[in-house]
Amino acid sequence: MKPLLIDYAIDTEQPKNQFKYEYDFEESLSIVLINNEKKALIETNNQDFALQTRTKVYDETNECNVDMINMQTKTRVHQENDDAYLQLLDMTIKTYVKQERDDESSNNLK
Amino acid sequence: MTKVLIISNKSDITSDFIVKQLKEKEIDFFRFNTDELTKTISCTLDLHKNSFILYDTIKKEKVNLAGITAVYFRRPELPIIEYDDLNRGEINLIQNEILFTLEGIYKLLRKAYWISPIYSIREAENKIFQLEVAKELNLKIPKSIVSNQYEDVNEFYSNCDENCIIKPIKSGVIEEENKSKVIYTNLLDKIPSSREQINSCPNFLQSHILKNGDVRVTMVGEKAFATMIHSQEDSKTKVDWRINQDFLKHTRIELPSDIHNKCVKLLRHLNLRFGAIDFVLDKNEEFIFLEINPNGQWAWIEKLTGYQISHEITNLLVNESF
């Protein structure tokens, strides 16, 4: 029989959308590409998220016409909400797993 | 002249906030992503020459550890070792070699100013120890027990009017191959009839406190950034706000001076320069100490409240005033 504590385990949630970013070795921080320009992930905002989504949709459906792309983007963004960007960044900063590890000074060094 | 070493990993976005501050203040720094050691970063620790160097092969930068005056210790991780010709045991051996090299580097940096000293962080991470210290400093704590003795757990539950929470003593993360699970703080439904369920692991139980909200106090030296997390506005977050953080309101609050002073004392007692302290604000507006995260997350608090936490951490790295 499992210890009592294990009865309370729940599945972790993963973020529904991912802001695409990468670590920039020259800048020593994570960046996103917005219209081919580098921007620090921590300085991005909702507008950047929308722009990146638009680019992403375009990449994925590059045979669609522009109106179609814009419609898709608007729908997606609308379905989220004004704070979508903040949620995503928030998730990045403290994904459930990492946030739960608030009390640990390292992730895999134990 | 100040030279800051950030010890973390590439994915640690919180360190990005410090990088940004250091750049703005034109403070010399190097971000040592330990997951890059053996990849883009190499080291030579020459004990004969007393020369201790990190090499950044991308930036073509050479960092002399003797020149480091302050260390911001965040979330070091080990590099992923992927060589087809190594078996699991050999990979473990290599990882241990890297781990002990890192530990050696931390020791070599012992004269620098750390936020926070690594061995203090490790000691302070234990929740049982934290509660003992908090109580000693006259912070109010919930009735608490850690036990795998069936009768004692039962008695504690009865003494708390059968209104207790159960939570992990360490981290609640259960990592499985393709997914992970987590254990938050939960209301204990009942004491199980099976003794085995109690005996097979120490159980951390506390009296359940009805609250007006949760308070996260981010301490940077003597400065307190207190935030009310309005956990009682959503039924899912009443017991543990972390379960559904989306859209949970966060507001700045002023800490009573007595609680502020005790938070400073707690840091000093634990030899920490930073701490993320969790309180419950009970129905009588009393602050009840839950725990301190000696290396806790703070970037989301800065984002949501506008508190200048990264600015304060950077100041502390430069001024070494606590």
Automatic annotation (TrEMBL), chain A:
This protein's name: Uncharacterized protein
Organism: Mariniphaga sediminis
TrEMBL record, chain B:
SUPFAM superfamilies assigned to the protein according to its UniProt record, in alphabetical order: Glutathione synthetase ATP-binding domain-like (SSF56059)
Gene3D superfamilies linked to this entry: ATP-grasp fold, B domain
Domain ATP-grasp, residue spans: 131-318
UniProt cross-references to PROSITE patterns, sorted A to Z: ATP_GRASP
Pfam family, one: ATPgraspMvdD
Keyword ATP-binding: yes
Keywords: ATP-binding, Nucleotide-binding
Native species: Mariniphaga sediminis
MF term (GO), any: metal ion binding
Name of the protein described by the UniProt record: ATP-grasp domain-containing protein
Any single GO BP term: SOS response
